[in-house]
Design goal:
Layout lengths: L1 E10 L3 E11 L4 E5 L6 H8 L7 E6 L2 E2 L5 H8 L2 E4 L11 H6 L8 H5 L5 H13 L15 H14 L4 E5 L7 H18 L2 E5 L3 H7 L2 E6 L2 E7 L8
Helix pairs in contact: 5-6, 6-7
Bound molecules: adenosine-5'-diphosphate (2 copies).
One adenosine-5'-diphosphate binds next to strand 2 and helix 1.
């Protein structure tokens, strides 16, 4: 489903992002990426959907190499990959519904998206996503009126609205209190179990990774320190 083969990313010809990464993630896995700040977690996630381009190696999604795809083919691959950010990445002055509908943009032509020509099926998917994260009573609320946890739930609903096979989440709970963070992790757990969506999540908090993820990949200095099933990780981390 996701495969990285000898992937190296270097920024501006000088700063190492990740080095010689070999990683295979199967459909339905729930993988936590941990490691020190600057270890390469964010670079790894961004490499999976080619937000950053490797200088070496190959990236595969569903068995297909995507490393050198043209922009329009890459757009089609990316619409099956939801991305959840640390800072939510919402349009603050728009409603929950409007934000979640943006998850459909990848499926629309530029003309359709310019005129906001959503179809009934887009609204249906948006409402399903909103329900999945329990925000039915906030559908028309403006994003900037929501709490951090609610904003992140909107971001998850937006990702779900893409009908993704994969969700990548880059430190999605780092700006939240532990309790709210656990609540968000439970939503990831639910959509992983119920919808069989593959989840790869960067986590600063090792304990959260141990509690929710099935597999832990530890990165340091851009390289894999270990890659284990959660039950086999030494708790003395
Ligand atoms: P983490 O997510 O584990 O904190 P990152 O992937 O953000 O690690 O960073 C890995 C290395 O790449 C760091 O040295 C960081 O400074 C560098 N880096 C990340 N993004 C950029 C960028 N856009 N331009 C230059 N260097 C970057
Ligand atoms: P993260 O923990 O997700 O890497 P950062 O705060 O490190 O977040 O990075 C925020 C943004 O700045 C990202 O888009 C990242 O690509 C970029 N960035 C990170 N490190 C550097 C760097 N050393 N030089 C330039 N841009 C960077």
């Amino acid at each position: 489903m996701i495969k990285l083969e000898d992937v190296t990313v270097i920024y501006n010809n000088k700063t190492l992002g990740i080095k010689d990464i070999n990683l295979e993630i199967k459909k339905g896995e729930f993988v936590g990426i941990i490691g020190p700040s600057g270890g390469g977690k964010s670079t790894l996630l961004k490499t999976i959907n080619l937000l950053v381009k490797p200088v070496k190696g190959k990236v595969y999604i569903d068995g297909r190499e995507i490393t050198n795809l043209d922009t329009s083919s890459l757009r089609k691959v990316r619409r099956q990959i939801g991305f959840v950010f640390q800072d939510y990445n919402l349009v603050e002055r728009s409603s929950v519904l409007a934000n979640v509908l943006l998850g459909r943009l990848g499926y629309m032509s530029s003309l359709q998206s310019f005129f906001n020509l959503y179809k009934d099926s887009d609204y249906y998917l948006a409402l399903q996503g909103i329900k999945e994260v329990g925000l039915e009573d906030k559908i028309f609320a403006r994003a900037d009126r929501l709490s951090g946890g609610q904003k992140q739930r909107v971001a998850i609903a937006k990702a779900l609205c893409q009908q993704p096979g994969i969700i990548l989440a880059d430190e999605p709970v780092s700006n939240l209190d532990l309790k709210v963070g656990e609540n968000i992790m439970n939503y990831f757990k639910k959509i992983n179990e119920k919808q069989k969506i593959t989840i790869v999540i960067n986590l600063h908090d090792v304990n959260l990774a141990l509690k929710y993820c099935h597999r832990i990949v530890a990165l340091s200095k851009g390289q894999v320190l270990f890659d284990k099933k959660t039950g086999e990780v030494d708790e003395q981390l």
